[in-house]
């Protein structure tokens, strides 16, 4: 997190956002669990990003400002649809990663939603996942390279 935070300060880009906290928690406290695997982490957040965008577009909120302090029915609809799509897609594809629900809300509420910001979200998730894997392996934890072993 410190590396991502430092990079955010140096580049003045939104690289540090709330759903990285629970992702880091899973990577370091449940590293062998499927929800913390690189596969679920990366693809779960990607599903969250795409669902957030779909929610914004479906409710005509793509060009609106953030809807955190002044919620509208369209903003609530965008977030509801996006979260339902995220939960449904992660379940359908067997990619549970609960922090991706927060990523969906960050996007569907319009906090981060421009194409460059969406790329930065995924870059931050990738950096955290890679460093989580490196740190887990250096400490002797059998962190999967892609997918957690069943059982």
Automatic annotation (TrEMBL):
Membrane-crossing segments per the record: 42-60, 72-95, 115-135
Domain HPP transmembrane region: 8-144
Pfam family, one: TM_HPP
Keyword Membrane among record annotations: yes
Keyword annotations of the record: Membrane, Transmembrane, Transmembrane helix
InterPro entries documented for this protein: HPP (IPR007065), TM_HPP (IPR058581)
PANTHER family: TRANSMEMBRANE PROTEIN DDB_G0269096-RELATED
Name this protein carries in UniProt: HPP transmembrane region domain-containing protein
């Amino acid at each position: 997190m410190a590396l991502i935070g430092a990079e955010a300060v140096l580049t003045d880009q939104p690289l540090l956002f709330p759903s990285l906290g629970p992702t880091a928690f899973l990577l370091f406290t449940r590293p062998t669990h499927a929800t913390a695997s690189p596969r679920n982490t990366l693809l779960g957040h990607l599903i969250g990003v795409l669902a957030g965008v779909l929610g914004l577009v479906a409710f005509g909120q793509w060009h609106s400002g953030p809807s955190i302090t002044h919620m509208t029915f369209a903003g609530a609809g965008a977030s509801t649809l996006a979260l339902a799509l995220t939960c449904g897609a992660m379940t359908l594809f067997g990619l549970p990663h609960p922090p991706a629900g927060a990523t969906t809300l960050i996007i569907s509420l319009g906090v981060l939603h421009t194409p460059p910001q969406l790329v930065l979200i995924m870059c931050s998730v990738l950096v955290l996942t890679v460093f989580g894997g490196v740190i887990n392996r250096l400490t002797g934890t059998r962190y999967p390279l892609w997918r957690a072993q069943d059982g």
